[in-house]
Amino acid sequence: xxxxxxxxxxLKEAPADAExxxxxxxxxxxxIKKLGAGIYTYMPMGLRVIRKVEAIVREEMNRAGAIxxxxxxxxxxxxxxxxxxFQTMGPELxxxxxxxxxxxxxxxxxxEAVTDIAxxxxxxxxxxxxxxxxIQTKFRDERRPRFxxxxxxxxxxxxxxxxxxxxxxxxxxxxxxxxxxxxxxDRFGLRYRAVAAxxxxxxxDLSEEFQVIAATGEDAIVYSTGSDYAANMEKAESAxxxxxxxAPAQPLTKTPTPGKSTCADVAELLGIPLxxxxxxxxxxxEALNGAGEVAKVQVWLLLxxxxxxxxxxxxxxxxxxxxxxxxxxxxxxxxxxxxxxxYLGPIGLKKPVKIVADREVAVMVDWVCGANExxxxxxxxxxxxxxxxxxxxxxxxxxxxxxAAPDGQGQLAIExxxxxxxxxxxxxxxxxxxxxxxxxxxxxxxxxxMGCYGIGITRLPAAAIEQNHDxxxxxxxxxxxxxxVVICPVGMDRSEAVKTAAEGLYxxxxxxxxxVILDDRGERxxxxxxxxxxxxxxxxxxxxxxxxxxxxxxxxxxRDTAATKxxxxxxxxxxxxxxxx
Amino acid sequence: xxxxxxxxxxLKEAPADAExxxxxxxxxxxxIKKLGAGIYTYMPMGLRVIRKVEAIVREEMNRAGAIxxxxxxxxxxxxxxxxxxFQTMGPELxxxxxxxxxxxxxxxxxxEAVTDIAxxxxxxxxxxxxxxxxIQTKFRDERRPRFxxxxxxxxxxxxxxxxxxxxxxxxxxxxxxxxxxxxxxDRFGLRYRAVAAxxxxxxxDLSEEFQVIAATGEDAIVYSTGSDYAANMEKAESAxxxxxxxAPAQPLTKTPTPGKSTCADVAELLGIPLxxxxxxxxxxxEALNGAGEVAKVQVWLLLxxxxxxxxxxxxxxxxxxxxxxxxxxxxxxxxxxxxxxxYLGPIGLKKPVKIVADREVAVMVDWVCGANExxxxxxxxxxxxxxxxxxxxxxxxxxxxxxAAPDGQGQLAIExxxxxxxxxxxxxxxxxxxxxxxxxxxxxxxxxxMGCYGIGITRLPAAAIEQNHDxxxxxxxxxxxxxxVVICPVGMDRSEAVKTAAEGLYxxxxxxxxxVILDDRGERxxxxxxxxxxxxxxxxxxxxxxxxxxxxxxxxxxRDTAATKxxxxxxxxxxxxxxxx
Lengths: 581, 581
What we know:
Two copies of one chain form a homodimer.
Chain A: H1 21-28, E1 32-36, E2 39-42, H2 44-63, E3 67-68, E4 74-76, H3 77-83, H4 85-88, E5 95-97, E6 103-106, H5 111-121, E7 130-139, E8 154-164, H6 167-188, E9 192-196, E10 207-213, E11 219-224, E12 230-232, E13 253-256, H7 263-270, E14 278-288, E15 294-305, H8 312-315, E16 326-327, H9 330-337, E17 354-358, H10 359-362, E18 367-370, E19 376-381, E20 392-394, E21 412-427, H11 429-433, E22 437-439, E23 445-447, E24 449-456, H12 459-467, E25 469-470, E26 473-474, E27 485-489, H13 496-511, E28 516-518, H14 525-535, E29 539-543, H15 545-549, E30 552-557, E31 564-567, H16 571-580
Parallel strand pairs in A: 3-7, 15-17, 17-20, 27-28, 27-29
Antiparallel strand pairs in A: 1-2, 4-6, 5-6, 7-8, 8-24, 9-10, 10-21, 11-12, 11-21, 13-19, 14-15, 14-16, 18-19, 21-24, 22-23, 25-26, 29-30, 30-31
């Protein structure tokens, strides 16, 4: 490609609404252009990146035996009523009425459409397993679209759906996709982690997120320094504390703590470690009567160490809390504890509550908690001696850096990530709802065991930028750069020698299949270099009259701080060598 | 590809709603699957065809210097208000409200979005010309979607938009696209014609349709047997009649024609050629006053030969009729002619009307028309002698087969076509409405001169099928076949020799870059052949145990009536030779 034949449109300033770096840089580099809130045109420079992402994904999906199709953007509401999602999904599902006032949706994913294909076309167990995927435009009507391609409303997603005879088959299909995803993300040239994720109502361990590591990532991801263990924060398990509880050493003492309503304040006031305090969180569950009215409210007290945070996903798995819970209201708290939040604790309750202690809290001795009296805490609290053992002990906290890894290998560390892929075992959730069955070997109809597997095609370039940039702009990995090599001739219009050398190198690299762009726009060197550093092409060759007189040109990788002089006769081989590496 | 790894889903019967052959065959061959009215999933087999169409289009568009981008499917209504299309387009424009009740449209084309890019990014004449294109999903909410991909609601279109400094540049860009379109359609391997089309309000000759020839096509297209002249029926010009009018030979005679209100009936009754009769059509134009009310109605009588049809597009270019016209009402006709339609003519009017004669009518002598009296016609009518010369003489009829070509070279012939491409010079229609300007060399802002260029990507396979099929199914041209070659092993599960030969040929053809599928499903020969004939793979190799014993396999092109025996050692070379041809 020659730059004069392409559309290069860089900006000095990022738009005011671009809050994150990838949004700023993609806009400034002319890769995307906003058409409306959360709706972007993929400009020629950006589309080249997206197409390279698509090509890698497509190649590996095909290699893994998945079969490509394309399902409609606009889908009948009728179909979405069958799965129940038309009714249950919130306003992020964009609903449309056609000229005949019939309901349609703009697809955010395609479980319904693909299950409709399966129930028509996959009639026998002999046709299974099958995995159908598409790379297609999606829409999610975010309340507050922002961050450019990171959280847009219209986006491109690769979504795959596997159909199997039974759970064992579905798990094999899932593992095949897990391997394919690793192959895909390895090829992108990005640092990433596959982390276990919570699989919600389906249960089991079969859900993983693929996270691109970036300091600006919105997800906290947890990994072990001593093993392959990795999970997202929702899912990451804290290791069970070692050994039995020590014997109590302190007497139970009520202590004035005026105005100190947080564990941190209390620890500071008393001169004790934060880890000696216990945080009280009050939840409520409701039992309904036959008419769907609340018949009984059960109040729960959850205890986590003062330096820990409660993990709602884990709480939702505690027996009794696993059918849904809410935070207790202030009147409910007053009724049971006799005081307001900030001074709560498990001793001296007005009315009984169910007590759930985090595993770490269950082994504490001589701890500190609220006295259920404003401006007072209790120190030297001990299980068994001062209060009964808790009703339940469970892992209900977020892990923290330095925790022992749950597999016993090394310690947990935490970093930030951007989710760009998610694989998920679905079970028969959709196939049962939509009556999608096949005839099994025994001649009986059975619902398909399904899995679904997504990759955010247009989100990936944004994540790549969050991970790879500097103050001058983007730094693309070779695999997904809009162009791999840029040739910058200085004074091409004045010097025949420069023109000949530039055109010659351009032709030679193209011949070798290198995705090279020749900047023949006639820009001045400063502006030309600034453009390509902003755009982030990884390899640059600069050809000038002065260097050529000595038979030399310059090579600079986008991460290099300075250019290297290279004999003109060796530059093509050098560039090709760099790309092969 | 091995068939067992792919999704092959053929049907014996076409769905009841499939009216046209391509819809029936694409559904039966498992290429498309209906999700809703006019909304189809592109199934794996169909998607392969679509991707090949896209690849050819993309390659030639790039070669012609057009630059690919992707504009959003969902576009802000605000932008569409700027061009006026939000207000003026009918219900075929699918309008959506987002969660904040803001207006959006689902794009049917992208003039607004691309003009918005141009006005931001093309700032100087130095950046021109530029041609931006996309291959993207479109939606048109047809009242009665039907014919499968031929007239669907959701479809994929390649739409390109050129931006130039001036009209001369725009016309060059147009010609470049015209050449690219010929290159594209040549590669598809289909019989097609590029025909001149009417360019509506923009004027000039710069509009061409690309029509795939098919007996079932909905458009009539006109071409010369003696030259390159070709146009659609709306546009095709009739040659001016030769020589002066002959002298009158018959007296003017009123003749009873009871109940004969059509030219055909009158010609039959009188025993004269239909070409001696003249058809009367009554139109009206309205002049409005300052308040937008109808101030004056002008009635027009249009005369075409009895064997000809009026062409409304041509009528709309007659001075006085070019600002819009309607058919006259029965009261208007009674008022001016004194009788009802069926017996109208230009002689003996109650009130004056403007008379427009087709060029053929203007040279007629001794002709027959209505007497403006029920059940009577007049014979022996002659211009000048019996009535004044017409107010205007113009080409206002559809051409018919056998007409002289307007360029004087040969005769016109008519065939049916399916429009799959359209190129159009737009002028400054959108750039003026949206204030899209660039700075010209003189430092002044000027509106872009634009052109637009479409190809119906998903319509093309349907058109290809309408042109190429037989009673057994589809016959794909090599360039866009889902697979180019199918290997059908007979008894692969029973015979090692068959398995080895089939796998060997499969590997060899794949190695040579041939898009080959090996049918390893274990279907019986009859079902297997029927599937591939329905799907329409152009080249088939059958490998059976019996033939192999004599060292032979069978080759059959989809158009061949029988298979040819070929030595097994030569089959790969033969197939490769057929593909290269």
